[in-house]
Amino acid sequence: MTGRQEPRAESREPRSAERMTTFLTIHDVEPSSPAARAGVAPGSLLVSLNGRPVQDTLDLRFAETAERVELIWRDVNGAEHRARLEKPEDLPLGLDVDPLKMRACNNKCAFCFAHQNARGMRRALSFKDDDYRFSFLNGNFATLTNLSQADMDRIVEQRLHPLYISVHATDWALRNRILGNPKAPNILEQIAFFAAGRIHMHTQVVLCPGINDGEHLAKSLEDLARFHPYIQTVALVPVGLTQYREKLPVLKSPDPEYAHSLLAWAEPWRRRFFKALGTRFAFPSDEFYLLAGRPFPAGRTYEGYPQLGNGVGGCRKFLDEFRRLSRRLPLSVSPIRRFTVVTGTLATPILGGVVEPLNKIDGLSIELIPVVNEFFGGSVTCAGLLTGTDIVKTLDRQRDRLGDAILIPSVAFKADEDIFLDDLLLQDLGTHLGRPALKVQATARDLVDAVLIGRSR
Fold first, then answer.
1. Which of 111, 120, 42 is nearest to 389 (CA)?
2. Longest C-alpha distance within the chain, in Å?
3. What is d(CA 312, CA 48) in angstroms, rounded to the nearest whole number?
4. Dihedral sign from CA coordinates of 329, 334, 338, 343
5. Backbone phi, then psi, for 449, in 5-degree steps?
6. Each residue of 65-103: pLDDT tens digit?
7. Looking at the chain, which terminus has fewer C-beta neighbours within 10 angstroms, N or C?
8. Cross-strand bridge partners of residue 68
9. Where are the alpha helices (DSSP H) in 180-232?
10. Which of 170, 156, 240 is nearest to 200 (CA)?
């Protein structure tokens, strides 16, 4: 509220035609907020804002940006109230409502990780999400195969972008075969709709050797480039396969030779795009460079790292950050500090190049121990899919090399919790090994802080 006008509340009984409508529950109301001053109380139902129903928190955030808001709610006794509010555009109404419930995926991708889990793992790992709202909010990739026209209209109206889209192939029949969904809509028609609405998009192609590469990949890049600048990037990502693929189609994992060929193939395309569009447009993931044993491109070539969360550019960013930090490393530390750093086999060359100069600091000793992913097997080599069980088995075999504390990258844990994918607790791992086990963010600064000043997050 701005103080210009007090909200006016009106009460009336609900109309019978609305009794079947599902409304959001208001769980909390911020004290002194516009909604609180209007008399909204926790436990009420949010009926509408500005004459329109509110289906989720995004609708709420979109509607409450207006200076004038007509709020209708239903109290715990079923009485309906209306208030006309005036407020600054950037002042929220102060309502805490039901959280977003993630939509399930309607595809059956041959490489979907949810189908490649061991039996007995927690149910959340088998849930296939495919939700454009979380694409907008968190950068999750979505296929858009479960969008209605109302969803598409909403994305444009509410400017829910950038979107992160799993394309895989622009050839309609091939894409549907990859998705295992013969009824999936034409992705190019969807992209054209969003481009016409000036929605920005980042896309990815998960490369399955012999299936959507070669001529198919060339076609996909050409098709997607037509929609630049609304399509801003295409990430080229290798398919990840575990050992749990019973009754799934046979797929091949990219090997070093494939990675080398892919990078050699992609570089002329990147130069051509840069000349024509002013952007390299296609960005191979870090894993291809690691597999091929090739150096990473310069940091500027990642153009701001828009696909960092998709494994594109993280290694270059890590190395550049450490290079800057290394100019200010101390010559010695006291007291003596001994650490064990755990990682997956994929990142071992990167971390090895960082641990070596750190070990030149007098009084500091760091032992890098890569962990082979026996749990998932297959081509799984990244730290983000390490399990507590594999870490324990590896460190048990090398107890004579363990430092006074064990540092484990945060990507190996469930979001915001100290729990591994196999439900082992970080605290239990430390207890078993008889020394502190610490979660460290996967950045050069956090690693340096952890070993020099003992700070982890």
1. 120
2. 78
3. 42
4. negative
5. -60, -40
6. 889 999 999 999 999 999 999 999 889 999 999 998 888
7. C
8. 86
9. 187-196, 215-225
10. 156
Question: How is 295-357 classified by DSSP, letter by letter?
Answer: PPPPGGGGTT-TTGGGTSSHHHHHHHHHHHHHTT--SEEEEEEEEEEEEESTTHHHHHHHHHH
Tell me if 338 sits within 8 A of 311, measured CB to CB.
no
Cβ atoms within 10 Å, residue 71: 25
Question: What does the pLDDT look like over 23-42, one tens digit per residue?
Answer: 999 999 999 999 999 999 99
Cα torsion at 306, 309, 314, 318 (round to 10°)?
100
Q: What's the pTM?
A: 0.86
DSSP state of 420: B
Helix and strand totals (H; E) in the chain: 14, 14
Is the omega angle on the peptide bond into residue 254 within 30 degrees of 0, that is, cis? Answer: no
Q: CB neighbours of 42 closer than 8 A, spacing ≥ 6?
A: 26, 27, 28, 29
CA distance 426 to 406: 10
Q: What are 291's two structure tokens? A: 């597999």
Order the strands of the 9-12 sheet from edge to edge. 9-12, 80-86, 68-74, 45-49, 24-29, 95-97
* Cβ neighbours around 126 below 10 Å, total: 13
pLDDT in tens, 279-303: 999 999 999 999 999 999 999 999 9
**Closest C-alpha to 354, from 440, 451, 435:** 451
> In angstroms, how far is CA 90 from the centroid of its own chain?
27
pLDDT at 421: 84
Angstrom distance (rounded) from CA 62 to CA 122: 35
Q: Delineate the domains of the chain, giving CATH numbers in brackets.
A: 9-97 (2.30.42.10), 113-312 (3.80.30), 320-453 (3.40.50)
Structure-block tokens of residue 429: 């791992």
Residue 148 half-sphere exposure toward CB, CA atoms < 13 A: 4
373-417 pLDDT per residue, tens: 988 886 788 888 899 999 999 999 999 999 999 999 999 987 778
- Residue ranges of E strands in 358-433: 362-371, 405-409
| Phi, then psi, of 215 in degrees rounded to 5 | -60, -35
pLDDT digits (tens, 9 = 90+) for 219-253: 999 999 999 999 999 999 998 766 655 666 777 88
Give the pLDDT confidence of 169-207 residue by residue, as tens digits.
999 999 999 999 999 999 999 999 999 999 999 999 999
